[in-house]
Task: structure prediction
Amino acid sequence: MAHEDTSYGSCSTSHFRYPLFTATYCMVFLVGLPLNAFSLWSLIHRLGLRSVPVIYMVNLALSDLLFTLSLPLRIVYFARGLWTFGSVACMIPGTLFSVNLYSSSFFITFISMDRMLAVVYPLRSRPFRTLSISWAACMVVWAGIIGLSVPVALNHDSNWDSNCSVYRCFEHYSQESWHNGFIILCIITLVGICIPFGIILGCTIAIVKKLRDKSRPLSELTQETGLNRSRIVRLFLVNLFIYAVCFIPFHVAFILYGLHKLNHLEYNFFDVQTVTMCLASTNSCLDPLIYYFSSMSVQRKRQMEMTECRTIQT
Result:
């Protein structure tokens, strides 16, 4: 869910949120659309759907691509300050923002778990790191996200702003909408952000402990997993960075702003929530870094397997 509020300011578009959102969404669209379209094409055609991390990355790229395709509607609205496309068109961008945010959170978590298992438990984890299990996990995420999108979409209807005599989208919600939306926000923040972040943090700690283990040479780990030390560390740092920049600040600010809207807090966190929402939107531009570090390990592992096969044949 993604709500802004016009109660903070006049009917004009002079408030900084309008040019900020317009500029941010233009940047994310111009950068994220070609990056994710190319990443999706590259993952499918160059690597194929024949390994677990590629399956997770393809689903992540698809989620990012759907979000970036919905951005032109947001750009037009915040550039003009009024909505003229009807209720259904208003529901789509707001819903896809939530779909992207929480599906990305889960797919990034799956990638972290898979890489951690590949390094820390390379042999014992093989029965669980299969194509069928990875596809099943992705389908569960999509089913849950689609189920979530129904109440989110119903909470993102266009509405008439009688003070300014214009239709609004993404903002100017009623007190009842805020109450229902706040309950949804708290639940999905716990399930879709806090728990996945805890898992990623745990995976990072396990990786660090493994890399410090002197009883097993890193060359042996590299041979088994196709991962080297620098790529392992960078992948997990990128995952933590995305959470630290895109996911956590937005949800903290959004919950604080929701508490203000429900009259539980006096301070208005609207400006903070506006800035952090822009940061949350940039996750689709940062995710290609995950594709890079993960796909490099897949390519290296595949090259090692092909070399071993040629050696055995000769």
Summary: Residues 304-313 have pLDDT under 50 and may be disordered.
